[in-house]
């Protein structure tokens, strides 16, 4: 099983790929995404969607965790 990545790790990977491509516009074009959308994700204005995650070699999964007992009874 692979390691989970948090939002910071996803954004760091996005910055790395954008840097290697030379610009948001170049990377976005190379993976078939809008450069505006890529910029919005890179600055945290939008969450990364399935197509952007796939372009980074990632996928999202929903994770459920137990709530602390105090919160469960509130």
Précis, in short:
With 74 residues, the chain is an all-alpha fold.
- Overall number of domains: 1
Q: Which ranges are low-confidence, i.e. pLDDT below 50, for 5 or more consecutive residues?
A: none
Judged by helices, strands and strand pairing, the structural class is: mainly alpha
**What gross morphology would you assign?**
elongated
Percent helix: 55-70%
Number of strands: 0
Strand content: under 5%
The first-level CATH class is given as Mainly Alpha
Major sheet size, sense and barrel closure? none
- Assembly type: single chain
Distance between the termini: 35 Å
Radius of gyration: 16 Å
Count of helical stretches: 5
What fold name stands as the CATH topology? 434 Repressor (Amino-terminal Domain)
**CATH architecture term:** Orthogonal Bundle
Q: Report the mean per-residue pLDDT as an integer.
A: 91
Order of helices and strands: HHHHH
């Amino acid at each position: 099983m692979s390691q989970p990545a948090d939002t910071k790790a996803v954004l760091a990977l996005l910055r790395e790929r954008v840097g290697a491509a030379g610009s948001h516009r170049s990377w976005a074009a190379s993976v078939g995404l809008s450069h505006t959308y890529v910029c919005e994700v890179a600055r945290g204005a939008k969450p990364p969607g399935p197509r952007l995650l796939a372009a980074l070699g990632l996928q999202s999964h929903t994770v459920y965790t137990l709530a602390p007992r105090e919160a469960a009874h509130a």
